[in-house]
Structure formats: C-alpha cells, structure tokens
Amino acid sequence: MSKNIDFLDNFNKLGFSQNESRVYLSLIKLGSSKAGSVAKHAGMDRSSTYNSLNSLLHKGLASYVVIGKIKWFQCSSTHNILNHLNRKVELAKEFLPKLEQIRTETKLKENARLFKGLKGVQTVFEDILQHAQENLVFGSEGQFSQKMPAFAQRFQQKMEKRGIKVKSIVRSSRQDPADTKILRHIPSTIESPVVTNIYAHKIAIVIWSEIPEAILIENKKAADAYRDYFNFMWKSAKK
C-alpha cells in the first residue's frame, strides 16, 4: 500500500491529477484491460475513469485496441512520461522569454525584494548565476559553505564553468580556496553576519542570522554607487 501512495504522490508532483495517477497505476498492474476493470481496480466511478483514460491517451501515456467492439486499454512505455514532460519544457522555453520581456517592461525600475530562509537565499544565489559576469563581495565569513554546503559546492562549480570571476574583500585572517575568487584583506577583528554581493545592476545583501534573509535590490544607480565604494575599498585593501 505504501508503494502505491509513494507512486501517486510522485506522479502528482509531476503535474498529473490524482485520478490520472490512479488510472495509470491500475493500467500498469492490470495490463490490457476494459474500462470497467480499470475503474474497479482504481476505486473510481466509470465516468471519472473514462475522463482520465482519455486524458492519458491525449498525453501519449496510454493506448487501446478494439476487440469485438470493446476497447482494451493499456499504458504505453513509461519513457513516454519523460517525453510528455520534455514537450512541456520545450513549450516553456518558447513562451517564457516573451513573458520575461513583458515583466521587465512593466516592473518598477527600482525594485527591492526580501527573501527568507535557506530556499529564499538559494533563489538569490541562483540569480547571481543567471545575471552576473563579475561578482563583488565583501563581508564573507564562509557562512554560505557552512550553512548550505551541497548547494554552495554546485554554485561554485557553475561559477567556474561560466567563468564568473569574484572579487572578495575579507578580514585579514580569512582565506578562501575558491579558484574563481580574487581576495584582498582589510584589518578587522569583528565578524559580521552580513555579506554584500554586487553584480550586474543588482545588490544582494545576505544576512546569515538563525533564519537567513536576503535583500535583493535591483537599481542601476544604487549598484553603480556600491560598485564605486567597493572599488575604493579594493584599492586600499591588502593583497
């Protein structure tokens, strides 16, 4: 029973309805079957079963043959689930850029957003990967690698693969082995939970409190001002 529940839950996460999931699982277990047998196995009424069968047929996940005027249904190869999802991905690739263009044209020119929790912070770092050609950082104490080790490793690998260089100003006692980082040091004995990232026309301020938060400011003038301040500090910092 638990395996069925796990299957239904996973199928639902892929975007299929509860009824589609139950009918598909019944087809897998029964093999070629009449709609009545599928309905009985799935614990559904015939009308809902027919609707789900038609939906699975439309998605290429089921088929039928007619024997003596009776339809016998069977599920198609499970690889067709991937084919169905890939078609959705291709469709998204076609229209999402158009939606993004509309969003960019209509959004406020000065935009600040607050993200909470590790998932929220991850969203901000993914934005850095998407938009940065160079990332200017100051205040890092290694909290990213400590609190999000698996994601931090993937993030670092993607930064290296995309050739995104990082300039980082840290306390004199701090070191960072990352190949993409160029470090300079300032004399300070005070550890700060606040890390500032400057990239593109954005400023990402990450606060590594008990529940991490991140503030993402999208404002070209503000980003340029922060960048000028960073460059001033960079010239004064020690290699």
Which keywords apply here?
single chain, 239 residues, alpha+beta, Arc Repressor Mutant, subunit A, Endonuclease, Chain A, 2 domains, seven-stranded mixed beta sheet, two-stranded antiparallel ribbon, 9 helices, 9 strands, elongated
Characterization of the model:
By secondary structure, the protein is an alpha+beta fold. The chain has two domains: 2-81, Orthogonal Bundle (Arc Repressor Mutant, subunit A), CATH 1.10.10.10; 105-236, Endonuclease Chain A (Endonuclease, Chain A, 2-Layer Sandwich). It is built from nine helices and nine strands. It has a seven-stranded mixed sheet with strand order 3-9-8-7-4-5-6, with helices on both faces. Strands 1-2 form a two-stranded antiparallel ribbon. Helix 2 (18-30) crosses helix 4 and helix 6 (117-131) runs parallel beside helix 8 (149-162). The longest helix has 28 residues, at 79-106. It starts with a helix and ends with a helix.
Outline of this structure?
This protein has nine helices and nine strands. It has 239 residues and is an alpha+beta fold.
Portion of residues in helices?
40-55%
Number of strands: 9
Sum up the overall morphology in one term.
elongated
Query: Number of helix segments?
Result: 9
Topology diagram in text:
Elements (H helix, E strand, L loop, with lengths): L1 H12 L4 H13 L4 H8 L3 H13 L3 E6 L2 E6 L3 H28 L4 E6 H15 L2 E5 L4 H5 L1 H14 L2 E7 L9 E6 L7 E6 L2 E6 L5 E6 L1 H17 L3
